[in-house]
Recover the amino acids of this structure.
C-alpha cells in the first residue's frame, strides 16, 4: 500500500513545522544556558562576598543553621 500523493503536502508541511519548532527550541536552550551561566557567576560572587565577610570577622565561620 503506497501513500497517496494528496498526503505529501501534509508531510512536507509537518516536516517544515517540526524544523521550525526545532530551531526555536535550540534557541531557547542557548538562552537558558546563558541564563544558567549568569546564575552560576552570581552564586560565585555571593560566595566570594560571604568568604570576605567571614575573613573580616563580620560573619561567623560557620552559619548557625549548618550542622557541620
Amino acid at each position: 500500500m503506497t501513500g497517496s500523493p494528496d498526503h505529501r503536502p501534509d508531510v512536507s508541511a509537518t516536516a517544515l513545522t517540526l524544523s521550525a519548532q526545532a530551531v526555536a527550541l535550540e534557541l531557547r536552550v542557548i538562552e537558558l544556558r546563558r541564563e544558567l551561566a549568569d546564575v552560576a557567576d552570581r552564586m560565585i560572587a555571593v560566595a566570594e562576598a560571604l568568604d570576605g565577610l567571614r575573613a573580616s570577622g563580620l560573619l561567623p565561620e560557620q552559619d548557625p543553621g549548618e550542622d557541620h
About this structure: The chain has a mean pLDDT of 88. Residues 8-55 form the longest helix (48 residues).
